[in-house]
Design a protein that fits this description.
- 27% of the residues lie in helices and 26% in strands.
- The protein is built from six helices and eleven strands.
- Strand 3 and strand 4 form a beta hairpin.
- The termini are far apart.
Length: 197
C-alpha cells in the first residue's frame, strides 16, 4: 500500500493577490466547502488526518475509480462535496456508518493525482503535468469530477475570478503554481505552491 503521508495544504496566512511571492501565471480552481479526501491506490479513503471515513458506502460510491486506481497504483487528492447540501448535511452523511450517498449529487472532486511511486518517493511531476494527466487518465468515472484549472496571468485576473466565484456562491478559489511539486504538509509563503483565497 502507498505510504501514509500528509496531504498538501495552502499557507494559512492571508495575503493579497498581488503578494510578491505569488508568481504569475498560476492555475486557479474553485474552493469547495466539503471533506478533503485522499485515495491511496483504491485501498484506503482517508481524511487529512489520515483517518478512514466512517461511512461504509463511500467505497461503493467510488467503486469504479477505486478499482482503476488499485490496478494502476494511482493516488488521488480531492474534495468530497455536494453542491446541493450544506456542510452540516454532508458532515452527517460522511460521519454516519451506513447512510446512503445516492441521489444527493455527492461527488469526489479530484484536483491532484500521481502514481504510487511518485507519491512514496517524492518523484511527482510539476503540477501542470499532473493536471493534464489526471484530466485524461481519470475521465468518465461515476461520481467523480475532475476539477478544472483556469490559467490566470495577473493579480487583477485572479481577483476578478475570485469575485466571480463568490457571486456564484462558492467559498473562494485556490491558486497553484504551474511548476509546483506536491508538498506533504502545509506550504509556506516562499514555496509558491498553493494559495487559498
Amino acid at each position: 500500500m502507498a505510504n501514509l503521508k500528509p496531504v498538501m495544504k495552502g499557507s494559512n496566512e492571508i495575503v493579497p493577490f498581488d503578494h510578491p511571492y505569488i508568481q504569475y501565471p498560476q492555475l486557479a480552481s474553485t474552493k469547495m466547502d466539503g471533506f478533503r479526501l485522499l485515495n491511496l491506490c483504491g485501498e484506503k479513503l482517508l481524511s487529512p488526518a489520515l483517518k478512514p471515513f466512517p461511512n461504509n458506502n463511500m467505497t461503493e460510491h467510488l467503486g469504479e475509480l477505486l478499482n482503476f486506481c488499485l490496478k494502476h497504483r494511482i493516488v488521488t487528492d480531492g474534495e468530497f462535496w455536494s453542491p446541493v447540501l450544506t456542510f452540516q448535511q454532508l458532515q452527517s452523511l460522511v460521519r454516519s456508518h451506513d447512510k446512503s450517498l445516492n441521489d444527493l449529487e455527492i461527488k469526489y472532486y479530484i484536483f491532484d493525482a500521481m502514481t504510487e511511486e511518485e507519491w512514496d518517493n517524492n518523484l511527482e511531476k510539476p503540477f501542470i503535468a499532473r493536471y493534464l494527466n489526471y484530466k485524461q487518465t481519470l475521465a468518465g468515472f461515476p461520481n467523480v469530477v475532475l476539477v478544472e484549472q483556469q490559467h490566470v496571468t495577473s493579480a487583477a485576473a485572479a481577483q476578478a475570478l475570485f469575485d466571480q466565484h463568490i457571486e456564484q456562491g462558492h467559498e473562494g478559489i485556490i491558486l497553484r503554481q504551474h511548476n509546483a511539486l506536491y508538498k506533504h504538509g502545509r506550504c509556506t509563503l516562499k514555496q509558491d505552491g498553493m494559495w487559498k483565497f
